[in-house]
From TrEMBL:
It comes from Micromonospora chersina. Gene3D superfamilies: 3.40.50.360. Residues 195-216 are annotated as: Disordered. Residues 6-151 form the NADPH-dependent FMN reductase-like domain. This is Multimeric flavodoxin WrbA. InterPro entries: Flavoprotein-like_sf, FMN_Rdtase-like_dom. GO terms for molecular function: oxidoreductase activity.
Length: 216
């Protein structure tokens, strides 16, 4: 059985050691992945001086290259984000923008280096917007080469405009627990399948064969 590693990127706006509901749900995903034989770690992105940009290294002490190295070493990426104004956090959007650089990074056979990696999403908030946020993040991750499994997201949202966050929710809802378990189970299964049977390299055409692609 292939050895699988996971990386959870906690996209809270709060630097450590502030409590983070995204961290609580992200850790629950890691624990559920551990039940499937997957090892991993979580990184709180705001603690690492990640620069805005769309390259693999923005220089000047950019914290992204070190995070990216761990991402490339993992077979499962989970984005854990809070909801703000019905949207994924600004930190989450910054991470997705940094992942845009992967569209130019390929392996020796011409595949994106993110091909064969599985992506999941974990969302928390005390307002509406969980499905919208999951849809945005999953679409972006798929576009830059990740594969999203069935039931590839888990979330919790409290009553709108109330102050109870997931970190304070007692008891933890069974619905979130079940979706977290499904996310872990299907992510580990898919990651092992892709490790054993990678995507094929892209087919190339001879220059001049077929119609040219025109803008517009």
């Amino acid at each position: 059985m292939a050895s699988i590693r996971a990386l959870v990127l906690n996209c809270t706006l709060k630097p450590s050691p502030a409590p983070s509901s995204s961290e609580v749900l992200g850790q629950e995903v890691l624990d559920a992945l551990g039940d499937q034989g997957v090892s991993g770690e979580m990184i709180r992105v705001v603690d690492h001086s990640v620069r805005f940009g769309v390259s693999t290294d923005e220089g000047d002490g950019d914290g992204w290259p070190a995070i990216r190295a761990k991402l490339l070493d993992a077979q499962i990426l989970v984005i854990a984000t809070p909801i703000w104004l019905g949207q994924p956090s600004a930190v989450c959007k910054m991470v997705l923008e940094r992942l845009d650089a992967e569209l130019s990074e390929t392996d020796a056979e011409g595949r994106l280096r993110t091909y064969g990696k599985v992506a999941g999403v974990a969302v928390v908030g005390n307002e509406d917007g969980a499905h919208h946020t999951i849809g945005q993040v999953q679409q972006a991750l798929n576009e830059v080469g990740f594969t999203c499994p069935a039931a590839g997201a888990t979330y919790w949202v409290g009553e709108a405009l109330h102050k109870t966050d997931y970190i304070d929710a007692r008891p933890k809802p069974d619905t979130t627990g079940r979706t977290t378990t499904a996310l872990a189970l299907n992510s580990a299964h898919l990651a092992r399948l892709l490790a054993e049977q990678p995507y094929p390299p892209p087919q190339t055409r001879d220059v001049g064969v077929g119609p040219s692609r025109q803008p517009g």
